[in-house]
Design brief:
Layout (H helix, E strand, L loop, with lengths): L1 H18 L6 E9 L11 E8 L2 E8 L9 E8 L10 E4 L5 E4 L3 E2 L3 E2 L6 E6 L5 E2 L5 E7 L15 E7 L9 E6 L2 E2 L3 H21 L1
Helix pairs in contact: 1-2
């Protein structure tokens, strides 16, 4: 009887994993941890987490060490995940501070979002509104845009992650740019639930044999 209950429970959980869209809009997600600017010195150590869907994307930066006076501001961030021309009606719906502007271009030196229009989601701030950061600080930007086909969104390992750090001295930037492609993919919640269900069922069967 106990074995039948475990089988039914496992099948029920598996069914929920395939029918309940835990993150139905997520196409690509991942995380990248750097101790510098991605091969160049100057940037504070940080972890970059992103989630990309067919009509929205977000980037979260967690600072892992104490910034210095030469890198204690974030002036611009971006994600590149689709060919040029695919991102339209871009809007920045959340940012860690006020004064940020969204553009569908790649990050450029000087705290601006430049070329490759329609391939990136980018957000930049003026020198007077750039973001002061601190150790263990967590900062998130979220964009929305017109729906694009999921097949046009890059896999996690091909997503471009960008951030510019610098001082806010005399109203000007002296940028240190993180420009990195590639990240470790993050399992979908449904996949994690499926794995847990499988482990639970295996544990139950092993117990029955004892």
């Amino acid at each position: 009887m106990t074995r039948r209950i475990l089988i039914v429970l496992g099948l029920a959980i598996m069914g929920l994993c395939y029918t309940a869209p835990a993150m139905a809009d997520t196409v690509s997600s991942g995380t990248l941890t750097l101790t510098d600017c991605g091969g160049a010195s100057g940037c504070p150590g940080a972890t970059y987490d992103f989630v990309i869907g067919t009509d929205s994307a977000s980037l979260t930066i967690t600072i892992n060490e104490a910034p210095t006076s030469s890198n204690d501001y974030i002036t611009a961030v971006n994600l590149g995940f689709t060919p040029s021309g695919n991102i339209t009606n871009l809007s920045l719906t959340a940012s860690p501070s006020s004064g940020w502007t969204a553009t569908s271009g790649s990050l450029s030196s000087g705290g601006t979002c430049g070329v490759n229009s329609g391939a990136f989601v980018c957000a930049s701030a003026s020198p007077l509104t750039s973001l002061l950061i601190s150790n263990a600080g967590i900062y998130t930007w979220t964009w929305t845009y017109d729906p694009i086909d999921a097949s046009l969104i890059a896999a996690a390992g091909d997503v471009h992650i960008g951030a510019e750090y610098g001082p806010n001295a005399n109203g000007s930037f002296n940028g240190l740019i993180v420009s990195q492609t590639g990240a470790t993919s993050v399992p979908e919640p449904a996949s994690l639930t499926l794995l847990a269900a499988g482990l639970l069922a295996m544990a139950g069967f092993a117990r029955l044999r004892l």
